[in-house]
Amino acid sequence: MAKRDRKATRRKPDTTCFVQVAREPSIGVEVSTGRPWVGVDQQVGHGSADALFALTEEQYATALADGWEIRPFMAACWRGEHDDLRLFDPRGGAWTPGRWFPSRPRVIPPRFAGELWHHADALADTPDGERTALSRALAAGTAHVRSGPDSGPVPGGGHGPDAVPGPDGGHPLTFALTGDGAYPRPAALIAGLDAGSDRERARAVLGDPLEGAPDTYPMEGDRVRLHYTDGGLTRITLERPAPAPLPAGPICAFLAPLGRPEAGTEFQEAVRLAGGTARRWAVSSGVTRRLIVCDGGVEVQVQDGRVLSTRIRLDTFDADTLFPGAARPLARADVHRALGPPAAISGRAELHRYGPRDLVVRYGPDGEAPKEITTVLGGAGVSHRIHRWRSGEFTLFLDVLGLDTDHPLAQHVRRLAGTRVRTHAGTVIAVTIGDRGHRPERLAAFADGMPPAPTRTDLPFGVPTYTGDRDDLRDFAQGWIHVHASDGETITTITVSQDPPRSLPVHRWSAHRDR
């Protein structure tokens, strides 16, 4: 091996960190410098916004308030007229920067855009959590903890559960918009509001304030308190109210599993009420989120062994199961009697917040008949437009890799007839089927649509990453799927493992050689 040239310039560590604040168009801040940016497509019409170009603070604030205003500048960037402002592009081999934090989809349509949403996500985070770190980076040391609604700001930049609790149990954060210690981008906290904005402008941006609190507004279950000096906005305080207790009745069964282990007691009860599991979908080979569709039409999203959300469509699910004794047809008043008053309203969607669990009811065009109920773990980004790529038990086997052996999902897989689970140091490292009996049953269930005696070409995952005379290897986000065929055609065993097998006689698949 050649010696390293001591005179060669060492690559400096990349300290950039890109935080997305809005999605359409993609706009955010590079927090190591505080410089705003906008994402521009490198390819025509594919919508990736993968090249990031610097904005002025004025452009940034304007774009957050009205995304169309920045379109001419984006077009100029695409034409190559502002290459000197490019902060990142995918020519380095990655579609996104190394430290990239996308904005989280909100549980109800937000009334406004702005950096305040990232600070709201940090309210319920741990002191050393990722969302707390993002909030601190965006604020650059200017956030203040408040001990009450009328007290002045206390410097310190505290975030998360270690912050001083307010009178309603929340952990208020205050951001000054003027003077020493002002927020670095005051016009970007709440798009459309800036230092000096009056109460009329605040109502135009935020809607109606809370009853009895003329300067306090709802924000997805949290509260935004505005402070004025001589009629002009000078400070913004973000508060989280004390959590409401979980509602009584069957609906609680769809709130209790959130954040809990998949296949655990709470999960099993929700699935039982939903009619049992029908299919378990993967989004793609590179995404670990799963969609579980139950026989009753209920959808459950899981990731990393825990439950993130449930979705109940009331056109396919019996409402009597959730609201026993309520009159028919079910009306908004019946929902309020069971769940309590909503914490926030956006259009036909109402948010009910129970500590770290959110429940959203969406009503029909008349605003009275509930059409859909979604429960979401606080801080989780959930989309109902999740792609259904392939389904089957392969998703189970991939998902148990790396889990503790006593995790309910790992125990569930171990109980499946015909599975062999290998462990190391108390965690699951591999699952094999085909060599322990019940072979046709397990192979047919591995991927929905496979026959009981499948061949290598029956696996619906496209071409393998590596292939050989008797073996195929496919690379997934959580591990590898190794298909072995003793006769070179009919599948003998399938092993799902964290690491690829060693010394396997395979080569990287190529169209020229293997098609």
How is the largest sheet built, in terms of strand order?
17-18-19-20-16-15-14-13-21
Count of the separate structural domains: 4
The major β-sheet equals: 9 strands, antiparallel
Mean pLDDT: 88
What features would you describe in this structure?
- The chain has 515 residues and is an alpha+beta fold.
- The chain folds into 4 domains: 84 residues, no CATH class; 124 residues, no CATH class; 128 residues; 123 residues, no CATH class.
- It contains 13 helices and 28 strands.
- The strands form 4 sheets. Strands 17-18-19-20-16-15-14-13-21 form a 9-stranded antiparallel sheet. A 7-stranded antiparallel sheet has the order 22-23-27-26-25-24-28. A 6-stranded mixed sheet has the order 5-4-3-2-1-6.
- β17 and β18 form a beta hairpin.
- The protein is globular, with a radius of gyration of 26 Å.
- It starts with 17 loop residues before the first strand and ends with a helix.
Considering the chains and any ligands shown, give keywords for the structure.
single chain, about 525 residues, alpha+beta, 4 domains, nine-stranded antiparallel β-sheet, seven-stranded antiparallel β-sheet, 13 helices, 28 strands, about 20% helix, globular, disordered N terminus
